[in-house]
UniProtKB/TrEMBL annotation:
UniProt feature coiled coil, ranges: none
Region (G-domain): 99-247
Gene Ontology cellular component terms for the protein in this record: cytosol
Protein's UniProt name: Translation initiation factor IF-2
The UniProt record lists the keyword Ribonucleoprotein: no
Biased composition regions of type Low complexity, renumbered to the chain: 59-88
UniProt-annotated location(s): Cytoplasm
Main location: cytoplasm
Residue ranges of every copy of the Tr-type G domain listed in the record: 96-269
Stated role: One of the essential components for the initiation of protein synthesis. Protects formylmethionyl-tRNA from spontaneous hydrolysis and promotes its binding to the 30S ribosomal subunits. Also involved in the hydrolysis of GTP during the formation of the 70S ribosomal complex.
Length: 388
């Protein structure tokens, strides 16, 4: 028997991933993440423990922390309806949120095609005649729940957003064409994801091509220290075709699985915070900004502060172009109400009313001026010291 990944074992045994990690902790088994592999002995021990637990009709080895949740409720198996991303609250009351996924990779390796395929098959079609608005992110509905994709040109957005200190993406998909393998921008994308400490999933695209060589891609990955799981490593590699759709469902499944392991949560009742994904000026509508809600809930009429500017939400649309009144965590929304276009990557916060918004802006302006003055003073005293 070869090595087994932690989450695979959890799935096979019908145990919650977190429960599995907890058992390993109790056993003193060290692991890096739930995608780490276990040796045969550990697998057997775990199997024994689970069997004991089930024989005892519940949580024999479960510590008090988890026993408050009945085992049967811990992981709803194949819920008939689509599970709502915010429905399952944890013990401490902070609900799960949908994962935010970014697609990166070399030119022409099929990033847009992959997103198009997902959007086409997983996003409710707009009624004919509706204006197709470009929103830099969209929500896909899968059997495993909602997944949010950031649909902006490659790693440009990823890096500008990150350069401003905001991490919007929870998972990065590195797209590699099966007929081209690793290219300069592939390496760059991998480096970006690693720097951001965002888990990666490799999608080997274009497997429909006769010259496709997915095995070569896997071997090449090992040269940059990304060892595919079938070679005993930690990297999930999904062969697929954005053209035929083969393998795309698997990718969505792996995204959901990775998200589950990341245990992503956000409180819709907390104070709002978000990030500007992109913005543009529409000749008729004015400034349209796409905001990713990261925490809290946005409502039409709220006052938003971005840097040293503020605005009031006049209208809000979701990625499907529907008008909405409020939006919770992991929801990309297009907002009308800024007087100037904010830059992508800027952090967005909200204020109770216009007065509070103005005060926040004033305090930021004040802080910036103080910092500038301090810099100027340091420069002057340095010059004095030098006797100039
Ligand atoms: P840039 O945005 O320029 O970096 O490219 P991209 O990565 O978005 O690639 P894009 O989706 O534009 O695809 C590039 C070319 O590859 C297009 O001609 C696609 O039709 C083709 N292509 C993408 N995916 C597949 C696939 O799975 N199979 C085949 N045969 N062709 C594909
Ligand atoms: Mg593209």
């Amino acid at each position: 028997m070869s090595k087994v990944r932690i989450y695979t074992l959890a799935k096979d045994l019908g145990v919650d991933n977190n429960r599995m990690l907890q058992m390993l902790d109790e056993l003193g088994v060290s692991y890096k993440s739930a995608s780490s592999t276990l040796d045969e002995d550990t697998v057997e021990t775990i199997k024994g423990l689970i069997a004991d637990e089930q024989a005892n009709g519940g949580s024999a080895a479960a510590p008090a922390a988890t026993s408050s949740t009945p085992a049967a409720e811990a992981e709803p198996a194949a819920a008939p309806s689509e599970p709502a991303a915010t429905a399952d609250a944890s013990d401490d009351g902070v609900p799960h949120r949908a994962p935010v996924v970014t697609i990166m990779g070399h030119v022409d390796h099929g990033k847009t095609s992959l997103l198009d395929y997902i959007r086409k098959t997983k996003v409710a079609a707009k009624e004919a005649g509706g204006i197709t608005q470009h929103v830099g992110a969209f929500e896909a509905k899968t059997s495993k729940g909602k997944i949010v994709f950031i649909d902006t040109p490659g790693h440009e957005a990823f890096t500008t957003i990150r350069a401003r200190g905001a991490n919007v993406a929870d998972i990065a998909i590195i797209v590699i064409a099966a007929d081209d393998s690793l290219m300069p921008q592939t390496r760059e994308a991998i480096a970006h994801a690693q720097a951001a400490k965002v888990p990666m999933i490799v999608a080997i695209n274009k497997v429909d091509l006769p010259q496709a060589d997915p095995e070569r891609v896997k071997t090449d990955l090992t040269t940059v220290n990304l060892v595919p799981e079938e070679y005993g490593g930690d990297i999930i590699v999904v062969p697929l075709s954005a053209k035929t759709g083969e393998g795309v469902e698997d990718l969505l499944e792996y995204i959901s699985l990775t998200a589950e392991l990341e245990d992503l949560r956000a409180d819709p009742k907390a104070e709002f915070s978000g990030v500007i994904i992109e913005s543009r000026v529409d000749k008729q509508a004015g400034v349209l900004a796409t905001v990713m809600v990261q925490q809290g809930t946005l409502r039409v009429g709220d006052f938003l502060v971005v840097g040293e500017k503020y605005g009031k939400i006049k209208a809000m649309t979701n990625s499907n172009g529907d008008r909405i009144k409020e939006a919770g965590p992991s929801t990309p929304v297009q907002i009308l109400g800024f007087s100037e276009a904010p830059t992508s990557g800027e952090k967005v916060s909200s204020a109770k009313n216009e007065h509070a918004a103005r005060e926040l802006v004033a305090s930021r302006v004040g802080e910036r001026r103080d910092a500038e003055a301090a810099r100027q003073n340091r420069k002057l005293s340095l010059e004095e010291m030098m006797g100039s």
